[in-house]
């Protein structure tokens, strides 16, 4: 998959894309990233990318022409391309949307807004969808775009060391993940649940599943509406 990031602060991406799973995926050729400086596509002596809003009011608005020129310079990769505006007014980002992008797109183009946002005529003409990472307002779309890059990257085949760990992540089955423990067996006077040391794989699976359900019920009961249980899991719940 290819992901292109359009921003007036392209340096923002340097370190985050050079660490951990994203870096590994890039080096392995699983993920290709393009970073584009919108300012390089602005005209005039000051290469201005923003202007005052028509109708007056607070702040500045990103101009449509540099955005359109920057987008036009992005190389086209594959048939299935989506242009996404990072915006608090967008549809909420979720594991389901990350999976949709990872499965159904060859190329994502993530446009990072700044100031008060983007001239609506650019959005109307060029943007396929707007994407919000949560009900709060950031100063710019760069952090939001990095969230999308990271979440999508984990779902690309081969990106994770352990093949099935994305399938067992929180949200993948409308459940939160169970608690995790590692060595030492005693820390700050606390032990590890005995079943995890028992070597009984079926009992461990059962324990983890029930804990996932309990945690989800306690912290995110809204998720459970999307859960469909196998017959074996139903039995476990009713034991
Ligand atoms: N005035 C806008 C509003 O009230 O909807 C907020 C603009 S915000 C200061 C500047 C940019 O940050 C936005 O254009 C968008 O690209 C990005 N941004 C802010 N919050 C975001 C969020 N929750 N999700 C995705 N992008 C966000």
TrEMBL record:
It is an enzyme of class 2 (transferase). InterPro entries: Alpha/beta_knot_MTases (IPR029028), tRNA_m1G_MeTrfase_C_sf (IPR023148), tRNA_m1G_MeTrfase_TrmD (IPR002649), tRNA_m1G_MTases_N (IPR029026), tRNA_MeTrfase_TRMD/TRM10 (IPR016009). GO terms for molecular function: tRNA (guanine(37)-N1)-methyltransferase activity. Its EC number is 2.1.1.228. The keyword tRNA processing applies. S-adenosyl-L-methionine binds at residues 113, 133-138. SUPFAM superfamilies: alpha/beta knot. Its main location: cytoplasm. This is tRNA (guanine-N(1)-)-methyltransferase.
């Amino acid at each position: 998959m290819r992901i292109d990031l359009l921003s007036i602060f392209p340096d923002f991406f340097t370190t985050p894309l050079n660490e951990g799973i994203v870096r590994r995926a890039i080096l392995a050729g699983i993920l290709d990233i393009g970073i584009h400086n919108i300012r390089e596509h602005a005209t005039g002596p000051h290469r201005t990318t923003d202007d005052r809003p028509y109708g007056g009011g607070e702040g500045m608005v990103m101009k449509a022409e540099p955005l359109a020129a920057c987008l036009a310079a992005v190389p086209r990769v594959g048939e299935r391309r989506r242009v996404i505006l990072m915006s608090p007014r967008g549809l909420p980002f979720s594991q389901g949307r990350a999976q949709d992008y990872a499965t159904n797109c060859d190329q994502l183009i993530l446009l990072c807004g700044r100031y008060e946002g983007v001239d609506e005529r650019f959005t109307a003409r060029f943007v396929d969808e707007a994407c919000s990472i949560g009900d709060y307002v950031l100063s710019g779309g760069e952090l939001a775009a990095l969230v999308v890059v990271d979440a999508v990257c984990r779902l690309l085949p081969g990106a994770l060391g352990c093949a099935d760990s994305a399938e067992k992540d929180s949200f993948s089955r409308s459940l939160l993940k169970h608690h995790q423990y590692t060595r030492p067996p005693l820390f700050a006077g606390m032990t590890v649940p005995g079943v995890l040391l028992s070597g009984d794989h079926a009992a461990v699976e059962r324990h983890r599943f029930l804990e996932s359900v309990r945690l989800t019920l306690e912290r995110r009961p809204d998720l459970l509406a999307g859960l469909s249980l196998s017959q074996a899991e139903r039995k476990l719940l009713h034991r």
